[in-house]
Design brief:
Largest sheet: 4 strands, mixed
Mean pLDDT: 88
Distance between the termini: 71 Å
Oligomer: single chain
Radius of gyration: 21 Å
Strand order of the largest sheet: 1-2-3-4
Low-confidence stretches: 1-16
Length: 173
């Protein structure tokens, strides 16, 4: 048996498979296309799907958050942070296809960057507020680490955010 190798890759010779796109998005958009007799847009939809699926990190996921009047295309990436997700585009009911075409690859890359910055900002903020004795004791109480930066690094994202706002209130007082 012969196995063909994949030779495409980026600068580091790593393959980038891109983001995962929830099957619910495809299902909802295809339903809209057929219900509204917009079949001529199917090739464009597929082209947009392929373009967006290659635009971000392979640990990112694009999914649809359904609301009463508006549905929102959301991006999450648990390898960056589990505490935040980023809305990319909103669509009125029945207009998913239009919103889908308005999402750009740069939107996905910028959303990933914003997720990284949001959690990094909270971690750095906690470290800087640890000059306060009460905040430092709060951090040390969460794990057995006695070095502030290591103590903060060991915390999960949700705990970092909770402690950040607690520390902010402590420092204000």
């Amino acid at each position: 048996m012969q196995v063909n190798t994949v030779t495409q890759g980026n600068k580091n010779n790593n393959l980038n498979f891109g983001i995962k796109i929830s099957g619910k998005i495809s299902s909802e958009i295809c339903k809209e296309i057929y219900d509204q007799k917009l079949n001529k847009y199917m090739p464009s939809y597929v082209q947009q799907y392929e373009k967006l699926s290659k635009s971000g990190l392979e640990t990112s996921e694009l999914y649809l958050a359904k609301g009463k009047d508006v549905d929102t295309f959301m991006l999450k990436n648990p390898s960056i942070t589990t505490a935040y997700e980023k809305p990319l585009m909103q669509a009125q009911k029945g207009n998913l296809l239009e919103a889908w075409f308005n999402i750009k690859p740069e939107d996905i890359q910028n959303a990933e960057k914003m997720l990284k910055e949001a959690i990094t900002e909270k971690r750095q903020g906690l470290v800087s507020m640890a000059d306060n004795v009460v905040v430092r004791a709060l951090l040390y109480g969460k794990n057995n680490e006695k070095e502030v930066s290591k103590a903060v690094e060991k915390l999960d994202d949700n705990t970092v955010i909770d402690l950040f706002y607690q520390a902010k209130n402590i420092v204000k007082s």
